[in-house]
Design a protein that fits this description.
The complex is a heterodimer of chains A (141) and B (137). Chain A is 74% helix and 0% strand. Chain A has 141 residues and is mainly alpha-helical. In chain A, helix 5 (101-109) packs across helix 6 (114-137). The longest helix of chain A is centred in the last third of the chain and has 24 residues, at 114-137. By secondary structure, chain B is mostly helical. Helices cover 69% and strands 0% of the residues of chain B. Classes of the chains: A mainly alpha (141), B mainly alpha (137). At the A-B interface, helix 1, helix 2, helix 3, helix 4 and helix 5 of A face helix 1, helix 2, helix 3, helix 4 and helix 5 of B.
């Protein structure tokens, strides 16, 4: 458990390197919500193959790793209404804000983007407040 | 070639999310839980991610992408209403379930019924987003 920060740093390095490859080779910002959302609302069908290829790698590689080395539980709540509400909020919110943890967080902050920094402050702030309210006050999650 | 690099980037992204523990919703909620048993891992993930990407942005200056086209250009930075409302909504959902879009996909093969439900709801939200966005304009 006390190695978590090191695994975080290593995994983060992989995430950042993957975003760097996507930028330097394909010339695109690697934002998960944008790459997925552009297929869903059809705004990004112009490069649908590139998007699907990226999603395929993202889905298949963790599947292979967990098959080989055992599943790392996601520990997601069993409360289905909470999950549905959460998914809707994440889906609508990331598309309205035009980015999530990868696009605004990693790709935005690394170029000192004002929008990226503002977005990150607000989603971390709202997330923290949500955990405080729903976990410590209401005891739902 | 573009698709190949996209698969490579997606694969490394997925591996990174798994290794760093970001597919574990308790670690994400632990980071957000400043008044509980606070877990700083996410800060290391962010730090580890920002450094290679900052180098990439620096390298991209005055160059063109290896596979053609242009690097993205960014208009006048504007922290508008949509950015803030959207980010607050995203943060609420992120805190509730401990998943954001990348890890939701990365963990779909082993996230069980909860993971699938989250992904479907998220995709539905993305489908609804243009309507909500139009109301905010």
């Amino acid at each position: 458990m006390n190695q978590d920060w090191l695994m975080g740093l290593l995994g983060g390095g992989l995430i950042g390197t993957s975003a760097a490859i996507f930028l330097l080779a394909n010339g695109k910002v690697m934002g998960a919500s944008g790459l997925i959302g552009g297929l869903v609302d059809k705004s990004g069908l112009g490069n649908w193959q590139e998007r699907l290829a990226w999603i395929a790698g993202l889905v298949i590689v963790p599947a292979i790793i967990t098959m080989l080395y055992g599943v790392k539980p996601t520990n997601i709540t069993g409360n289905i209404p909470v999950i549905i509400a959460a998914g809707l909020f994440v889906g609508i919110g990331t598309r309205i804000a035009n980015g999530c943890t990868s696009g605004h967080g990693i790709c935005g902050i690394s170029r000192m983007s004002l929008r990226g920094i503002v977005a990150t402050v607000f989603y971390i702030g709202a997330g923290g407040l949500t955990v405080v309210i729903f976990k410590h006050v209401l005891g739902i999650i | 070639m573009r698709n190949l690099m996209a698969i490579l980037a997606g694969s490394m992204f997925g591996a990174g999310l798994l290794i760093s523990g970001m597919t574990n919703t308790l670690k994400v909620q632990g980071w957000l839980d400043v008044f509980g048993n606070w877990d700083p891992t996410l800060a290391f993930v962010m730090g580890g991610g920002v450094i290679p990407m900052a180098l990439a942005w620096a390298y991209s200056k005055g160059r063109k992408p290896a596979l053609g086209g242009e690097f993205p250009t960014f208009g006048k930075p504007e922290a508008d209403k949509k950015l803030i409302i959207g980010s607050v909504m995203f943060g609420i959902g992120w805190g509730l379930a401990g998943l954001c879009p990348g890890p939701a996909l990365a963990s779909i093969s082993f996230g069980g019924i909860g993971g699938v439900t989250f992904l479907v709801a998220m995709l539905a939200g993305m489908l609804l987003a243009p309507m909500v966005r139009a109301k905010l304009d």
